[in-house]
């Protein structure tokens, strides 16, 4: 097995008496998309600052492409690129000028600057807008220019710090496609995000950071398997029916007054569905739909950290019931240090 592209062992960092990172361990493979999830104050930004050599760790070791971030900081900076939360581009220059300027600053041979700029403009679908000032670009186009700039020097590792902040859903989806293509080309991507759907749909591996510690890691499916049970969602016709559902004799874990739906926790989804339909029929409650809702990353995050993230990029997915009983999730190989609270 090849050495990890990013290897973090026992990373500790404090500011005064406040411990921000407390023994963080991470391992990211070449060509992997690795998401670091966590609430505000969990230590994500400090971790990124250490990885990019902007902050020195108090203890532990961090290597990127085999280079130590403290003893070989210059070599680390040669193989990484960082894109922050907001596009860092010169709005008064054109997209083409931004890329050419960064190519020059990266000391690319003058003979290659024009070709490299043209190739990146084409890759990010910016050729038609290449000679327009960036100030005329949409938010999604600015973000693509910013990402293109990060790739000017052909980095081995791309660190994206909440890259889709402020983007509309379409621009966010387009950026996800670009990130997948970069990983397919062998670039290692470390992504910090508060968008749960982003981590779910994009990342090969997810680590949850809370209180400066990695409390769980694994694939999205593995993490979801840490949360026991499922839920049955009951959609009704009106607010009167919603009030009646709360009195049918089953435990209700949530009420959505806007969408006229109630949620019932269960370990036996099929049996619960049958009970709901039978009791609703007996009491004349107009039910418009019943579905089984599997644990989401939002549920995982709540279980691990005691709070939900500030941002969820999309609604929870539900699985319509079928005549056959849904299967329970298999035991998960996901690792967790703190366990579920």
Automatic annotation (TrEMBL):
Domain ABC transporter intervals? 6-236
Q: Which UniProt keywords apply?
A: Antibiotic resistance, ATP-binding, Cell membrane, Membrane, Nucleotide-binding, Translocase, Transport
UniProt superkingdom:
Bacteria
Chain residue ranges for the region called Disordered: 308-341
Point out the signal peptide segment.
none
- Kindly give the InterPro entries that the UniProt entry links to this protein: AAA+_ATPase (IPR003593), ABC_transporter-like_ATP-bd (IPR003439), ABC_transporter-like_CS (IPR017871), ABC_transporter_ATP-binding (IPR050763), DrrA (IPR005894), DrrA1/2-like_C (IPR025302), P-loop_NTPase (IPR027417)
Name its cellular compartments. Cell membrane
What PANTHER family is this protein classified in?
A: ABC TRANSPORTER ATP-BINDING PROTEIN, DOXORUBICIN RESISTANCE ATP-BINDING PROTEIN DRRA
Record protein name field = ATP-binding cassette domain-containing protein
């Amino acid at each position: 097995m090849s050495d990890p592209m990013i290897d973090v062992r026992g990373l500790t960092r404090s500011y005064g008496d406040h411990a921000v990172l407390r023994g963080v361990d991470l391992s990211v493979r070449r060509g992997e998309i690795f998401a670091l999830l966590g609430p505000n104050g969990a230590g994500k930004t400090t971790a990124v600052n250490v990885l990019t050599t902007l902050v020195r760790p108090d203890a532990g070791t961090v290597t990127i492409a085999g280079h130590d971030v403290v003893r070989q900081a210059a070599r680390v900076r040669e193989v990484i690129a960082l894109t922050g939360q907001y596009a860092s581009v010169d709005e008064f220059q054109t997209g083409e000028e931004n890329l050419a300027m960064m190519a020059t600053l990266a000391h690319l041979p003058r003979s290659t600057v024009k070709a490299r700029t043209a190739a990146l403009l084409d890759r990010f679908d910016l050729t038609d807008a290449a000679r327009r000032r960036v100030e005329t670009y949409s938010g999604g186009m600015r973000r693509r220019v910013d990402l293109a700039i990060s790739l000017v020097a052909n980095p081995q590792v791309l660190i994206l710090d909440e890259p889709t902040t402020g983007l509309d859903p379409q621009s966010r989806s387009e950026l996800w496609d670009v990130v997948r293509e970069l990983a397919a080309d062998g670039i290692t991507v470390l992504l910090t995000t508060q968008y749960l759907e982003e981590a779910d749909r994009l990342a090969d591996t997810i680590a949850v950071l809370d209180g400066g510690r990695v409390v769980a890691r694994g694939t999205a499916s593995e993490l979801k398997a840490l949360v026991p049970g499922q839920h049955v969602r009951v959609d009704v016709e009106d607010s009167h029916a919603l009030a009646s559902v709360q009195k049918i004799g089953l435990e209700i874990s949530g009420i959505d007054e806007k969408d006229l739906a109630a949620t019932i926790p269960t370990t036996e989804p099929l049996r619960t569905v049958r009970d709901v339909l039978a009791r609703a029929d007996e009491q004349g409650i107009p039910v418009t739909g019943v579905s089984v809702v599997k644990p989401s990353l939002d549920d995982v995050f709540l279980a691990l950290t005691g709070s939900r993230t500030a941002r969820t990029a999309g609604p929870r997915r539900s699985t319509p019931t079928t005549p056959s009983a849904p299967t329970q999730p298999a035991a998960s190989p996901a690792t967790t240090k703190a366990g579920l609270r």
